[in-house]
Design a protein that fits this description.
Elements (H helix, E strand, L loop, with lengths): L2 H19 L11 H9 L6 H18 L26 H10 L5 H16 L3 H5 L12 E5 L6 E5 L2 H13 L9 E2 L2 E2 L2 H12 L10 H14 L4 H8 L4 H8 L4 H12 L4
Antiparallel strand pairs: 1-2, 3-4
């Protein structure tokens, strides 16, 4: 269990679950009690009810696996559906706006440009990119091994000529001898520092979408799918355990292209 998972489970156990079923005996639990858990979960925000139920189910499963009999089966408790927003990604025009907003002659801007190109071309998570050292990259093969931020597995990701070009351009302009690929001051670039810099310099360039690190990973997956890459290959490049995760949370839809495809394919059917 990751540290973050433990923190999140503790937050819900001593939050919505504690406030909704703390006075119930195990033998008195019913399926209907899940309604109280859902209601109490609303205090945790939009996803609170869903996460509260997931933690409730996990708790009941743990109790059952411990050999304690329960009057209900955790599998009978339904997880409330979460209204999904369309996956947000950047269009080619928006990417060009971002690139034009960064001055390659100014080192912090050049660092941000190189980082964006890396995220866009490799699909790396920001924590993975910031953890890299200069010597980690095989510039000939255009690849690097990273530690998956979620699973901690060692995995391969791939660059393109474009991202390699910008990484080298950034490294050539640096005057320090630090081993880190991306630096801030005298140390490794922190994800929060990069996020704050992007927020300050890219929030007012005429793009309504929230420009954050993860949108480049979603753009990466979306363009691969739109380019005709097989979903299993995209799943592999995104380093997801399931292709459902790739499709559900990482692939956006171009409505105009979907409309064009609809008319092109179905318009000729008599």
């Amino acid at each position: 269990m990751s540290k973050k998972t433990i923190i999140e489970h503790r937050r819900y156990l001593f939050g919505s679950l504690s406030h909704s079923i703390q006075n119930k005996e195990l033998d008195d639990l019913t399926i209907a009690d899940s309604a109280m858990v859902i209601e109490a979960g609303m205090t945790h925000g939009k996803t609170g009810p869903q996460r509260s139920i997931c933690v409730f189910r996990t708790l009941l499963k743990y109790i059952k696996d411990s050999g304690i009999k329960l009057p209900i089966d955790w599998r009978d408790i339904e997880v409330p559906k979460l209204t999904r927003k369309p996956v947000e990604y950047l269009t080619l025009e928006e990417l060009e706006k971002i690139r034009n907003a960064l001055d390659e002659n100014y080192l912090p801007d050049l660092r941000t440009r190189a980082l964006i190109e890396v995220l866009l071309d490799t699909g790396m998570r920001i924590s993975e990119a910031c953890s890299l050292d200069k010597n980690d990259i095989d510039y000939e093969k255009k690849e690097v091994r990273v530690i998956n931020a979620k699973t901690k597995d060692i995995e391969m990701v791939y660059f393109t000529d474009r991202s390699i070009f910008w990484v080298k351009k950034y490294l050539e302009k640096r005057k320090d001898e630090l081993p880190y690929l991306f630096v801030s001051g005298r140390g490794r670039l922190l994800t929060v520092s990069s996020r704050n810099y992007m927020r300050t310099h890219l929030d007012n360039i005429g793009i309504k979408k929230h420009i954050k690190h993860h949108i480049f990973r979603k753009t990466f997956a979306t363009y691969l799918i739109q380019g005709g890459v097989n979903i299993k290959e995209v799943q592999t490049l995104c380093r997801h355990k399931s292709e459902r995760t790739t499709l559900r949370a990482y692939v956006g839809v171009n409505i105009e292209e979907a409309k064009f495809s609809h008319h092109k394919i179905l318009g000729g059917i008599a």
